[in-house]
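Example 3.2
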Amino acid sequence: MDAHVGAYRYAREHGLFRTAHAGEALGPESVWETLRLLDPQRICHGTRSIEDPKLVEHLRRKRIHLEICPSANVQIIPSIGSMEEHPIDRLCRAGVSLNVNSDSRMLTPTTLTREYETLQRVFHWGKEELLRTNLVGLDVAFADDEVKQLLRNSFLVSYGGANPSA
């Protein structure tokens, strides 16, 4: 990680967007280290943050966004033996900013649709939860406000009246 500190410092000093991988293969200490050394706006995965309540609260309070890839996490993280044990629902209910991703299709043969279907089946997520995570993901997207508004409108129409605050 030390090799990346300078690049992240440069990005921060020049107003560039920053995201980093942490908290997947290694535990919550890797997320703490990544936050301390790289100061990213988003964390790819961060799944194992659930193992440290102080970290979960820090992520919630600082609005540090997690990009969670449930199927890939189940495939890679030994402590998550099945989708039913995946912490995405607990992280979401704890108020952590997150959205759902499919990760690398070369490693994990899934689609975003399949990820959504799994979350609906396993955690009983409905349109409201899926819309909420999409809107939160959109809020932290590295895109300009005009693009975000167009996508927000499209999401709201696509979800046909779902209430994301429910």
